[in-house]
Amino acid sequence: MDEIEEGRPITFAEVTREIEAAKRDGYARIDFFGGEPTTYSFLADAVRFAEDAGLETMLATNALRFASAAYAKAFFRRARPLAVRVSLYSHAADFHDRVTKLPGSFEKTLAGIRNIRAHHERIGVSVLIMSENANRLAEITELVHGLGVPGIKFIGLIETDRTGHAYPELAYDLHALKAPLAAAVAKADRLGMIVQLEKLPICIAKRHAERFVQEAPDPTFFKAEICARCVESPRCPGFSRPAIERGGMPAFAKPITRRG
Ligand code: SF4
Fold this sequence. Notes:
The protein has 260 residues and is α/β, with parallel strands linked by helices. It has one domain: Alpha-Beta Barrel (TIM Barrel), CATH 3.20.20. Helix content is 35%, strand content 13%. Helix 2 (43-52) links the parallel strand 1 and strand 2 (56-61). The longest helix is centred in the last third of the chain and has 17 residues, at 174-190. The two termini are 37 Å apart. The chain binds iron/sulfur cluster. Iron/sulfur cluster (SF4) binds at residues 201-203, 223-224, 226-227, 230, 232-233, 236, 238-239, 253, 255-256.
């Protein structure tokens, strides 16, 4: 919702106007994300408004508000998003709470996930890959599966955000990520989960090229010379420039010459 109007709270009337405009402009889906969309008391009504307009809806949340079983029940009685995505940073409470800067948020997010799952089966967890969790992706996958969540998405870190703020302390070694990422995908496959990958070069896991999802291009990503010879280039975000400047080109960086 904060992409509709950044920097100030928005009203229900503004949201509905934007939804109507999106419908007129031919969009098929509305994503509600943040910030944190559940901070808006009218969120369920806004999602319902979009659904009634014939649009698919997607909700991305930290799930803290859904830790209340009553909130979850009331929300899903009113709205049925096509999918709900919850952000989780670790299988360890202390690390998750340090990232969110909110003591207790890990346990609340897990409670929220359980409550969402109780009312809605189309739920996935998004894991932002950072230095401290890059080697623990398989364990996070196990936790997510244990919560009854069918889908998991691993997202590469954008090391410099839209305001230009850099997060070097969160950066991981792109080359070293290949093995733990492969292990996590293999674990998720064994558990029968749906896996998606985002904001990562496809050559880091080329066997899973079909699992990479495309999002809006990020200015901190670039295509290297080798990308010109790669069949996946049109749908690949390329490499994170800060990651390459820090660690050089990873050994896995090779053009993909045919689709598997
Ligand atoms: S070589 Fe370039 S375009 Fe091809 S998968 Fe790797 S980063 Fe993407």
